Amino acid sequence: MQTAWLCIHIFGVLVGFFLLASVLKQRDSEYKSRLIITIICCLIALVSRSLFIMAQDLREMIALCKTEYCGKCFANFIALTFVLSYYRIKWPRKLMLILFGINLAMFIVIMTCDYHSLYYTSYEVAATGNGNILILGKAPIYYLYMAFCLIEMILYLYVCINPAYQQIRQATRAIQGLLIMAGITPFVMLLVYLSGITGGFDTTPLGILFSVVFLFTAVNRYGLFDTVQNAKETVIESMDEGIIVSDNQMNFLYANPAACELFPEMKLGEGKISDSEIQAIYEQSGTVIDLNDKSYEIRTSEIRDEVKVRGYMISVIDVTEMTAQAKLMRELKEKAENASHVKSAFLANMSHEIRTPMNAILGMTEIALRGELEQQQRDAVEQIKSASMTLITIINDILDFSKMESGKMEIVEADYDLMTLVQDVYHIISGKVEEKNLKLEIRIDPTMPKGLYGDEIRLKQVLINLVNNAVKFTDQGSICLDIGYEKKEEDILFKVSVKDTGIGIKPDDLERIFNSFEQSDTFRNRKKEGSGLGLAISRQLLILMGGEIHVESVYRQGSNFSFEVPQRVTSDEPCGELNLEKRQPRTLQTTEYENFRAPGAKVLIVDDNLVNRKVAAGLMKPFAMQIDTAKSGEEAIEMVKQKEYHLIFMDHMMPDMDGVEATHVIRELEGEYYQKVPIIALTANAISGVKEMFLTEGMDDFIAKPIDFKELSEKIVHWLPFELLEDA
Question: Which residues of 306-377 form beta strands (DSSP E)?
Fold first, then answer.
């Protein structure tokens, strides 16, 4: 009999080593380490028991008995943690520490049993027909520990058969059976040993072996070593969103823990959700439902194979925070829109309040420059005009930036002549270049097409901004404006470079020079005029036109701003060599557009501000027209009824009756004259969309304050009957 027991245990050792080698070859998974430890515990117990069977000496038997416990003391605990891991169950940390601590304490007691009688009271070798056996006197702690081992095994089996735990793994019944067998066999073997029917031979190591075999089979055969599959299951079962799986007939198959919390009736063993309830959830796909004071969105997807739909997966997603965020975003959007309206109203008001006095300043300086002034007086007036134009430029930049922020900036494309564009830019910028004694060089590719299609006004604005920026930050040296192109099928890529020998830009500042209201090296450049918006506006305009801007700079040596923008070609005729006309002296600029008179023209100027009426009348004086003025909308209406005017300049914002209301009244008067008399809006409100508003309200055109003399001349020529015009 002794030989049979020895053979059984040696065979068990071989099986254990085979299982260990097999597990070590597998890919890493959360089950691998626990299974390896369990197999090692089993091998320690089996090898110790095999050597124990062959031992003859009492001391040797006692030592092997202790060694055997090195495996037996922790095998049950490791198996329990294995099954808890499989079912994704987290017992309280304190409970697990207590279980481990009891096993560890008993292990220490057994290892030190030579020094006390707490576990064994006596040792005796007895010769039997089956060989020598060790008869041990058992102390009460021995029986308590055996009871504890049985409790650990019962806990293991409880986890395997508890319906509350099984519902998350119901598709793997075969694994459940193997795990149950892995718990029953050591339990039975321990009971057999304690009953004494084995004649004193300890069968618990064999029970551990059978447990290991069943655990290995469950892990190996059913893919628990598959890291990808484990990851999928772990993710689904640990997800915060509920997952419900049904077959293609809406029969309930599976629900993860999150879904079970939302729908408790889905837990197996505690009732089963009906097919109609699954159908009801499915039909709410794409909607948001309220559960437990939270909002959940229902989403469904088909589970298909290559042939047909096998089932459905219903996701129940917590969108409480998302819904709250959406509500908050709507509220913020409304506030932003309200703020945008407030900002637009503020800008309109500020535009009016600033432009009204600026109109008086610029208008009066223009009128003053027409008179006979001493050189010192003329220089002073010229400086007033220059400073006023700088302020108007800043105001215009802020308004342009406001248009871009609100998305109301529009690109208006039309045919234009390249050489005219370049000459206009030259005449606008040359004065500032001369004031700083800089050298200005303009180069243009003579083969470049002359006729182009694009937004000439905005392109001109970008060119002027870049050159003015170069002038502002260049105190000596030169500025080079280089214009070329690159052929792109039927269109061209308009290419411009503005290079200066100015102060340059630090590398750290290159990233922020296109930001709004910013300048590079602020401390050094604090005295430079400007809004800090020129480059930001230029960049946005180029983006709107489909182009882009670049900058290269060496600090204290100069900068090179370049851009490309696509333009259509309307005439392939080469532009030829650039021939810039000589710039007229500044003292003659004010008469540049005084090349006509209209002594027969009757004009009405309507403005509630006396100074503005004087400015408008003074600017029109060179045209020798018959000018009347009105200080209110009501007065203008009465004057129009009594006299037919060829042209009416109507201020917008006036007390009592504004210009729009006065226009409505005039247009409603009986007679063709009142329907056709040209009414041009005069307004200090120059924000986006105001011109369109005036045209919609019945006016014919629009002039922004401060009044530009060139624009005023063009409007008069355009709207007065041709027969009233004569050469000056």
Answer: 309-318
On whether the CB atoms of residues 455 and 585 are closer than 8 A, the answer is no
C-alpha of 39 from chain center: 52
Lookup: tokens for 162: 């508890």
List the Cα angle 321/322/324 in 5-degree steps: 65
Record the tokens describing residue 320, joined without a space.
Answer: 């409480």
Which residue type occupies 3?
Answer: T
Phi-psi bin for 483: left (phi > 0), alpha (psi -120 to 50), beta?
Answer: beta
Q: Which residues of 305-329 are buried (b: 16+ CB within 10 A; e: fewer)?
A: eeeeeebbbbbbbbbbeebeeeeee
Q: Which residues of 113-140 are buried (b: 16+ CB within 10 A; e: fewer)?
A: beeeeebbeebeeeeeebbbbbebeebe
> DSSP label at 508?
G
Q: Among residues 36, 24, 29, which one has the least CA distance to residue 233?
A: 29
- Which pTM value belongs to this model? 0.44
**Residue keyed to tokens 């009142």:** 674
Residue 595 contacts residue 728 (beta carbons within 8 Å): yes
Helices 93-111 and 140-161, packing angle to 10 deg: 150
Tokens of 21: 């080698």
Tokens of 587: 């003292």
Tokens of 72: 């037996």
Q: Which is more confident, 29 or 719? A: 719
Residue 629, strand partner residues:
605
Residues 183 and 153: beta-carbon distance below 8 Å: yes
Show the tokens assigned to 564: 């490309």
What is the rounded distance in angstroms from the CA atom of residue 236 to the CA atom of residue 303? 15
What residue has token string 């014919």? 700
d(CA 110, CA 119): 7
DSSP state of 139: P
Q: Which residues pair with 316 in a beta bridge?
A: 242, 298
Query: Token pair for residue 414?
Result: 């039309």
DSSP 591: G
Residue position matching structure tokens 């490791």: 78
Of 627, 93, 688, the residue nearest 340 (C-alpha): 688
The CB-based long-range contact list for 10-14 (8 Å cut-off, 24+ gap) reads 10/50, 12/42, 12/46, 12/205, 12/206, 12/209, 13/43, 13/46, 13/47, 13/50
Distance CA 370, CA 627 (A): 19
pLDDT band at 167 (very low <50, low <70, confident <90, very high): very low
Distance of CA 594 to the CA centre of its chain: 57
For residues 594 and 622, what is the distance between their CA atoms, to the nearest angstrom?
7
Q: Name which residue leads in pLDDT, 414 or 516.
A: 414
Q: Which tokens belong to 128?
A: 């039997």
Residue 4 phi/psi, 5° resolution? -65, -45
State what percent of residues in the chain have pLDDT above 70: 83
* Non-local CB neighbours of 291 within 8 Å, separated by 6+ positions: 262
Buried b (16+ CB within 10 A) or exposed e, 9-24: beebbebbeebbeebe
CA dist 334 and 342 (Å) reads 12
Q: Which residues contact 22 (CB under 8 A, 6 or more apart)?
A: 216, 220
Distance CA 429, CA 393 (A): 13
Tell me the β-bridge partners of 302.
312
Distance of CA 661 to the CA centre of its chain: 47
Query: Taking a C-beta distance cutoff of 8 angstroms, is the pair 73, 107 a contact?
Result: yes
Q: In this predicted model, what pLDDT tens digit does every residue of 519-554 receive, in sequence order? A: 544 434 444 444 457 788 888 889 989 999 999 999
| 338 vs 483, more confident | 483
- CA–CA separation, 106 vs 95, rounded Å? 17
Furthest C-alpha separation in the chain: 148
- Give 3-state DSSP helix, strand, coil % of the chain, rounded to 5: 55, 20, 25
